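Design review, sub-item: ligand-bound model
Attendees: FS, YL, KQ
YL presented the inputs for the iron/sulfur cluster complex:
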Amino acid sequence: MAERPQHAAHERGFAAAQIAFEPDFQPRRKRRRQSRPKHERSGFIGKLHVGCKLFIIGRMSENDHLLEPVRDATALPHLTALAADIRRWAAELGFSALTIAAADLPGAGERLRRWLAAGRHGDMHYMARHEAERSHPATLVPGARRVISVRMDYWPEAVCAAATLADGGLAYVSRYAVGRDYHKVLRARLQRLAERIGAAAPAHCRVFTDSAPVLEVELAQRAGLGWRGKHTLLLCRDAGSFFFLGEIFIDLPLPLDAPVAGHCGTCEACIEACPTGAIVAPYTLDARRCISYLTIEHPGHIPEPLRPLIGNRIYGCDDCQLVCPWNRHTRPSAEADFAVRHDLDRAPLTVLFAWSEATFLARTAGSAIRRIGYERWLRNIAVALGNAPKTPEVLTALRARADEPSALVREHVRWALARRQA
Ligand code: SF4
Ligand code: SF4
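KQ shared the predicted structure:
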């Protein structure tokens, strides 16, 4: 659950991160309930347009999410037609797959609690907050009956990842972050999809993109979007794991999709390839050792024993996915927004380390990288320079930052210089 593209990443509470297609969802529900006659309050009537047909349906009460959901899936054939329409609209918007799960995750809370109790979330204290909302999505969006999960593939047309990783003078940026900020891209498309659903049916939708206490891999897995790999990310047969997930919470009892079987078999390639041993057991990640967490989420000093293992990875890490056999045939995404910007797939460390704060802010505008801020950016590159070949350029670059105003950066530069001069 460290910062990897499918994982809860920027949950700074609910504040700016929560995306609401209908921001006043709850107050509007209340207003309408209060204004409706009493006999309608427990199941009011709505209209649903599917193709050229009009259906009249009874809405569930707000507590109906506690009932067995399969009941309504077969009883409401018009919702099956709506689900088919939603899939078609999603494909038109560039989503590669869409599945539907019940807005409840029995058992997920217990697993999350065990993970938190072991301290494996490191500084991601937000993971410990809103546990009820995570394991019971209907608590997060009252009245929600279903969670629609969508997949958007992002693998960019870029220099071979292995070649960049093998060249210690270059910076490796996780491939999900070399283009535009996926939150913006995904959010805009999800909102359009939610609006389209809202125009066809009396539905209340709420859109999330990796931004609220939502166990999105868990939900997507339950709905058969893929299976959880031993590296803990979601995998699917046709696209491996290089994709983003987004969700729409909806208060209609759409038919549910069934989970799919896992296909990791006896493979443990991701566990063996992890540079820091962060996958401590199949399906268990210790975020405190994960390079994605250390370079993105972790705000302070990177533990010294882990620094040499980070190599030239300055923002995130893809190693456990790069070795996965299901990613062998990944094709580049056609999305222009995910195309590489500013040569971030092959930039020399010394060039990035020389960026002023103004340059950093200008070049990372609209990029997920900007969220870590200039200080962590320099900290991460200092570590990578400490692992880089001992060239005069590397030494010059480090010495130029020896008196940085930030104590955090200075300490990492000192460490790197000591390694270079040893
Ligand atoms: S390979 Fe290891 S360090 Fe890298 S993202 Fe995967 S779990 Fe984290
Ligand atoms: S590398 Fe192997 S074990 Fe790991 S997720 Fe892929 S198939 Fe599963």
